[in-house]
Specification:
mainly alpha, 10 helices, about 65% helix, elongated, chromatin binding, HEAT_SCC3-SA, SCD, STAG2 protein, Cohesin_Scc3/SA
């Protein structure tokens, strides 16, 4: 029953919000992770949204729990026609790929003449889009990340400088 799945996912989110319980949930997470990942494709959109939100919390508590394949199952949902699913997947994608920024990377960007620390993030987003091979659905990707990555998506100066600069050796 969809209602039961939904209630279970929302109850689990409450547990994963509690940082003290995260270490105690490792066995549960490893046991039921595959089922939670499969629920991201649930026929009821509310269940899919809550499953993605739960996986985002799992990601924040322990990044090594989710495999690359698990993450890829969520990544493609940023192109979902159902906006709440796409937004939840966009937040997951942002937290996984874009939310960590190294001070070392920022130094490299300035040495290369890129003014914004968002330059690598913009390039990562473009590569993600190109690798997904859904070139006619760029608007879906931008819309799914608009709420969580507004600063990145509105960094026009960074995007302009990336477009106007000559690529470095080995760079496309």
């Amino acid at each position: 029953q969809g209602e039961v799945r939904l209630k279970c996912l929302t109850a689990l989110q409450g547990l994963y919000y509690n940082k003290e319980l995260n270490s105690k949930l490792e066995l549960f997470t490893s046991r039921f992770k595959d089922r939670i990942v499969s629920m991201t494709l649930d026929k009821e959109y509310d269940v899919a949204v809550q499953a993605i939100k739960l996986l985002t919390l799992v990601l924040q508590s322990s990044e090594e729990v989710l495999t690359a394949e698990d993450c890829e199952n969520v990544y493609h949902l940023v192109y979902s026609a159902h906006r709440p699913v796409a937004v939840a997947a966009g937040e997951f994608l942002y937290k996984k790929l874009f939310s960590r920024r190294d001070a070392e990377d920022d130094g490299i960007l300035k040495r290369r003449g890129r003014q914004s620390p968002n330059a690598n993030l913009v390039k990562t987003l473009v590569f993600f889009f190109l690798e997904s091979e859904l070139h006619e659905h760029a608007a879906y990707l931008v819309d799914s990340m608009w709420d969580c990555a507004t600063d990145l998506l509105k960094d026009w100066e960074c995007m302009n400088s990336l477009l106007l600069e000559e690529p470095l050796n080995g760079e496309e």
